[in-house]
């Protein structure tokens, strides 16, 4: 069923609604609003609601738009501030780049200068290295010359070995490996030689020479023995003295002599002096033969010295016996050995030095 809508009561010409009996009296404003709503139809109410909703949405949209504009304005201000900061940073970076560019140019100039100095130092080092090599080679050559002289003139193996070891120690650079190997081979040859201690032999000869002046003569010992026998002869009885005299006479009846043995002559003080000096000269000659490696002369002088000691000196005395034994031992010593040839090392060093000088030029 449809509900019929009654038309509102007609108003008077003044627009006031007739008063209904029994209706309580309301205030004027509220009465008008209620009168207004009572006159609206459903369509009008719907339209009114839509208008209200539209106005509300418009106000809300306007509010959101204002907020958006404010947010955009805030963001724009932040962007502008950031842009200004970026511009400042860009300006600072550009200034820093210019400053770094200037420093880089300075560094490049310093680097170029350093490279030039390095090239100059390398050239100087090469020159000094070449000079040092030349000096080392000259020293090695000199030491090898000394070693060769020691072997040829005095056969002093120990001195030659020391000189060659000193020369080998100067060749520690890899460029000298070939020369070092050659010298090492000659050093091994010297080490393999038998050891002849020439200084010790020379010292023992000097010791015997120093004893010559104090050695007792054989004639002095014979005279002293006769005096001692005469003093020590005891007083004998008559019969004992008689038989002693008989025996002495009997010894002269039969006499056996060695005719090959020469009687030792009695020497005067002058002859004794010259005897000792000649013996010293013989020993000095033996020492010269030792230093020159003349083994024949060395043995001959020592043999002559032994004969003189045995003939003219009292070899039973302690000093004479010691001197005689020393000369016997020295005469049995070998003072000559076959010396190796080390001229190959000297020639190799000399050729290397000459070629190195030509290469440096």
TrEMBL record:
Record's keyword annotation contains Coiled coil: yes
Annotated region Disordered: where?
1-28
Q: Where are the transmembrane segments?
A: 40-59
Entry coiled-coil feature ranges: 65-131
Q: Which Pfam families match?
A: HemX
**What are the UniProt keywords, alphabetically?**
Coiled coil, Membrane, Transmembrane, Transmembrane helix
Mark out the compositionally biased spans (Pro residues). Answer: 1-10
Q: Among its keywords, does the record have Membrane?
A: yes
Protein's recorded name: Uncharacterized protein
Organism in which the protein naturally occurs: Sideroxyarcus emersonii
Q: What is the lineage of its organism?
A: Bacteria, Pseudomonadati, Pseudomonadota, Betaproteobacteria, Nitrosomonadales
């Amino acid at each position: 069923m449809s509900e019929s809508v009654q038309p509102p009561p007609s108003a008077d010409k003044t627009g006031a609604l007739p008063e209904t009996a029994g209706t309580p009296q309301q205030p004027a404003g509220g009465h008008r609003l209620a009168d207004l709503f009572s006159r609206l139809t459903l369509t009008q109410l719907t339209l009114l609601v839509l208008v209200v909703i539209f106005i509300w949405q418009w106000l809300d949209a306007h509010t959101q738009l204002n907020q958006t504009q404010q947010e955009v304005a805030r963001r724009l201000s932040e962007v502008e501030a950031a842009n200004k900061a970026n511009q400042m940073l860009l300006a600072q970076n550009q200034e820093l780049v210019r400053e770094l560019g200037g420093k880089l140019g300075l560094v490049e100039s310093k680097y170029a200068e350093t490279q030039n100095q390095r090239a100059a130092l390398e050239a100087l080092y090469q020159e000094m290295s070449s000079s040092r090599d030349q000096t080392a080679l000259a020293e090695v050559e000199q030491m090898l010359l000394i070693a060769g002289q020691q072997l040829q003139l005095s056969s002093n193996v120990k001195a030659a070995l020391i000189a060659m070891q000193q020369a080998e120690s100067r060749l520690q650079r890899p460029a000298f490996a070939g020369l070092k190997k050659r010298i090492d081979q000659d050093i091994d040859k010297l080490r393999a030689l038998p050891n002849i201690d020439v200084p010790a032999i020379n010292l023992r000869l000097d010791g015997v020479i120093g004893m010559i002046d104090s050695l007792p003569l054989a004639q002095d010992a014979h005279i002293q023995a006769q005096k001692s026998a005469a003093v020590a002869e005891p007083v004998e009885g008559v019969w004992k003295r008689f038989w002693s005299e008989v025996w002495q006479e009997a010894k002269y009846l039969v006499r056996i002599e060695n005719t090959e043995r020469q009687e030792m002559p009695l020497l005067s003080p002058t002859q004794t002096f010259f005897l000792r000096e000649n013996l010293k000269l013989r020993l000095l000659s033996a020492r010269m033969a030792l230093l020159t490696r003349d083994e024949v002369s060395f043995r001959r002088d020592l043999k002559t010295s032994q004969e003189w000691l045995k003939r003219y000196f009292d070899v039973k005395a302690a000093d004479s016996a010691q001197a005689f034994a020393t000369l016997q031992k020295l005469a049995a010593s070998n003072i000559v050995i076959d010396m190796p040839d080390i001229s190959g090392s000297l020639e190799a060093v000399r050729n290397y030095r000459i070629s190195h000088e030509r290469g440096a030029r």
